[in-house]
Amino acid sequence: MLCLHLLRFEYDYNLSQNRKINDSYSFDYHLDLSEFLEKPNCSSCSYKLLSILVHSGDNSSGHYVSFINPELDGQVRKKTTHRSYLILF
Predict the structure, then answer these.
(1) At 35, is the secondary structure helix, strand, or coil?
(2) pTM of the entire structure?
(3) Nearest to residue 87, comparing CAs of 58, 57, 54, 56?
(4) List of residues 6+ apart from 84 with CB closer than 8 A
(5) Fewest Cβ atoms closer than 10 Å to its Cβ: which of 26, 62, 68, 79?
(6) pLDDT band at 42 (very low <50, low <70, confident <90, very high)
(7) d(CA 89, CA 29)
(8) CB 26 within 8 A of CB 38
(9) What is the mean pLDDT of residues 26-46?
């Protein structure tokens, strides 16, 4: 299992506060990291997308929505919750 976290906040020195980065991202259902490994072992460098957690709101409040692919078949289900989840491959 591989867990990725995207840093979505930065410090704005002009305003002296944190600011949320609201850029869009897209993900493929398969992730192959073999090109980044010195000695790739193909059985441990390929991942299928399991889940993505999306936060809407600002850096002090908001709501989380998770998109899950429980069968690893590319069919994504949307779940809303206040609990935390992770981006998992």
Answers:
(1) helix
(2) 0.61
(3) 54
(4) 53, 64
(5) 26
(6) low
(7) 9
(8) no
(9) 79
